[in-house]
Specification:
- The chain is mainly alpha-helical.
- It is 53% helix and 2% strand.
- The chain has a domain of 134 residues: Up-down Bundle (Four Helix Bundle (Hemerythrin (Met), subunit A)).
- The chain has a two-stranded antiparallel sheet with strand order 1-2.
- Helix 2 packs parallel to helix 3 and helix 2 runs antiparallel to helix 4.
- The longest helix is centred in the middle third of the chain and has 22 residues.
- The protein is globular.
- GO terms for molecular function: metal ion binding.
- It comes from Asanoa ishikariensis.
Length: 198
Amino acid sequence: MSENITISGWDVLDEAHRVLRATVAGVAAGDWDRPTPCTDWNATQVLQHAAGDQRGFAWAITGGDAPTENPFAPSGVLTQDPTAYLNPHLDAAAAAWATVDKSAETAPTPLPLGPLPTWVGSGAAALDAAVHAWDIAVATGQPSPLTPELARSLMKVAVEIVEPLRAFAYAPAIATNPTDDDVTVLLAYLGRRSDWSA
């Protein structure tokens, strides 16, 4: 990974970016066309979607470069190394969030919900990055990048934003059991099964 990684100063977002970078770096060259938990998208398309979403958060905050393709219609074609493709998008998002004062009441987002409480906005960017890291990881035979601590932090955000976006960006929630762990509970709330396999 690049040694010039931009840090946002928002801990959950920085951890989500870290796990997405690590997951992408861990994908074998021949695995980018593998199916993922995101129905109809392969690993390349999930990467493009995740990168485009981060660019969207940066654009909402700074008014800089918008995503160059629709994150919800990824082409599945990359013309450069996946890590080299991803890093500028994550750096742009981190640099944008680094300009957001933690005491600010709200922050702009590209979501249909519009501006959100600042911690929720940064958390929404983190949720997107971390969960798509999980999608790519399980699709390509890597361990889950979600720790219980990260899952708990992301769940606090998920309950703030997911229901209004359920038909747009998230599948119906899956029932859980009281004994399920934090990662399973988060994934189920987002419509994913923790035991998913291709």
